[in-house]
Amino acid sequence: MPANLPSHARTVIIGGGSIGCNTAYHLTKLGHADVVVLEQGQLTSGTTWHAAGLIVAGLLKSESECEIYTHGRDLYARLEQETGLPTGFRDVGYLQIATNDERTHEMRRAAPFMRRYGINCYEVSPREAQDLFPVGDLNNVKSAFYIPEDGRANPVDVTMSLGKGARMGGAQIFEGVRVTEITAKNGTATGICTQDGQAITCENIVICGGMWSRQLGAKAGINLPLQAAEHYYLITEAIPGLPRDLPVLEDPSTYTYYREEMGGMMLGLFEPGAAAWKLDGIPDDFQFGEIEPDWDRVTPDLEKAYSRVPDMMTHGVKKLFCGPESFTPDLAPLVGPTPELRNAWVACGMNSLGILNGAGTGMVLAHWIVDGLPPVDVTGINVNRFGKSEATPAFRRDRTPEQLGMLFGQHWPDESPKTARNVKRSVLHDRLAAAGAYFAEGHGWEMPDWFAPTPGQAKIENHSWFRQHWWDWHAGEHRAAREDVIVMDMSTMSCFAVEGPHACALLSRLSCNEVDVAPGRVVYTAWVNEAGGFEADLTVTRLTRDKFMVVVGENSHGHTEMRLRRHIAEDEFVVITDVTAARSQINVHGPKSRELLSRVSGADLGNDAFPFMTAREIDVGYAVVLAMRVTFVGELGWELHVPATQAVQTYDLITDAGHDLGLRNAGMQTLNSLRLEKAYRDFGLDVDNTDNPIEAGLGFAVKLDKPGGFIGRDALAAIKARGVPHARMLQFLLRDPEPLLYGNELIYLDGREVGYIQVGGYGHTLGGAVGLGFAELDAPLTAARVEAGHWQIDIAGQRYAATASLRPLYDPDMTKIKV
């Protein structure tokens, strides 16, 4: 019998697994009771039912990951008391092992950061690890880390308990109801239609359909790049004497987790070279389903996994399970409002961590829907971060097999995927490759990371957390920027033309700084939300009265475009055009940049004719390019926006003219080290939607008194009125030249932990590692307090003395930029 559905609901959630029930539960907790959950089969029948139920932290790399994880662990531990239904949660503990020094260093870096956010991760000796996991062969273990509060839960029990909690709060849950269509009008989702012809109108639609989400979203034009992959686990027959409360063991060297299951041992594989499943789409009727195991492919991985617990070899296999789990291109979930349809939301692509992170994700999305803003940093999980390329069958086919191993293996700084590369390439790519570029991948782009003396040397044989073989080459690029001149291909920067009679009104409403300026002016500005939190940092250049150019980092492409389009008022006429692919951006920076460009252009590039933060069209050889005198490296220089059809010629002309000036190509490593020396901020890396420009040290770009105000103006005014903030972003320089900073290292002031480094690099000019991070006190953090304090940074458990500063440690008066 078809379910008798209501004709209207405030929110309809599609999918009754862990994520759908978690979202419903958390919505009702916020008083958002009119919720309908529609499940095409039975609750948990997709992937939830066969999940391993691990509630273990892993190595978490962000504040939001820690908050999402701890929320779920704490909820599952107490949910039975609320609903009367068990979750099966048992805090048996969680043990991670390292079999090499690099993995040990990685874990030692991560543990202090995790402890800061309530995850009691601490190092134990190999002997203590053996005592905790007596059935394992840990002879080759170098170190181990243990979290006693972590453990395991029963995925079906958890979901049923959440479902009951949601019903107790007013939600309705219907099984056996397949949604076939998301209805929309004028770009806004309005409801759903079901297979049996029923319809529900609603104010919000939430896609929580797991591995079905991509194909359901595609019917409504929503881009959700995720793909199902085969995932294996094996359960042995009972092993006599196996402790029921054996901790969960994770071993990156075998890409395996181990835990007790019904008196036997379960091992789960996250093997490299996995297999994508059903590229063309998941069958609607695949419920409580299994996949035929590919024994030939997984047997070598199983044999390696068996070696960690040799007793398993003497006991039979009770079950070899193969079932699908969905994975995303960057192993982060897809969460938030969709850019394609207003009032449509998603939470999917959980990368086999749907039980682990389901509660936290449901909490974040519920607050986002009810409050209008998420409670944590969502820059890394926002669904609008991807383009359509990542959802193509070819991309999913090539990238997915790599993802399982990347999720469970050893991790490295600056590591890029090896598969599904060359999605986006600058027209200068071949020139850069011939110049010795080593390419990393960023948001689909092939980005020159550093340059080797010859193309044959542009490779990494062994990643490391310490200095790598390309260190001196990168240092040479850095010195060239400070002493001579560099050329950088920055075509990855996203560029939008914003034009029309109301273009200025739109950009003024979004921008904290004044953008109603004379044509030819470049304005650096932040965009913030109603609470004053960052939504972007970028430049807005006024070209004519009604035409502007917005330039923003490649990591903010989708978010910036979505924000532009969503804030055009009904009575406004504005045309937004993504011109990123139509032009190349070639940056020329350094003390000799004016001399170099003067050799190839007849334009007057002097300070009076072409001052800092202005834009002009100039000739460069046969090309007419838009030149902006701006910098993200802290030196004299220009961004050249060149038609893509003339980029190669322009690049050749510049490089030919700069040989005797010491011109060098420079990559992203050098961009990072230069900008960190100058303490330039970068949205999505240093600051996010939970930070504000006042505390981030960007108050100079906030014009609270500009006519008409801007979104978030009142919130920033209130923050400003409170006086000197208790939390401020500072620049740090390690006094010891040897250690390196990457991010997440804890900050100490006079022996007390006060914050952490957001992102780090090496300041080759300043002579040590540099980083940016917020420090927070229980009193105003004044300049005098900063200068008088004894600052230290924790790296892998060792504290290093540091200099802290509110002003840039390199060229604080900007004399080099404005020369």
Automatic annotation (TrEMBL):
- Family in the record: Belongs to the GcvT family.
* Domain FAD dependent oxidoreductase: from-to ranges: 11-368
- InterPro entries reported in the protein's UniProt record: FAD-dep_OxRdtase, FAD/NAD-bd_sf, FAO_M, GcvT/YgfZ/DmdA, GcvT/YgfZ_C, GcvT_C, GCVT_N, TrmE/GcvT-like
Ranges of residues in domain Aminomethyltransferase C-terminal? 728-811
Keyword Oxidoreductase part of the UniProt annotation: yes
Q: Which positions fall inside the FAD dependent oxidoreductase central domain?
A: 371-426
Which lineage ranks, top first, belong to the organism behind this chain?
Bacteria, Pseudomonadati, Pseudomonadota, Alphaproteobacteria, Rhodobacterales
This chain's protein is named: FAD-dependent oxidoreductase
User: Would the keyword Lipid metabolism turn up in this protein's UniProt record?
Assistant: no
Per UniProt, which keywords does this protein have? Oxidoreductase
Q: Which residues are in the GCVT N-terminal domain?
A: 428-706
Pfam families named among the record's database cross-references: DAO (PF01266), FAO_M (PF16350), GCV_T (PF01571), GCV_T_C (PF08669)
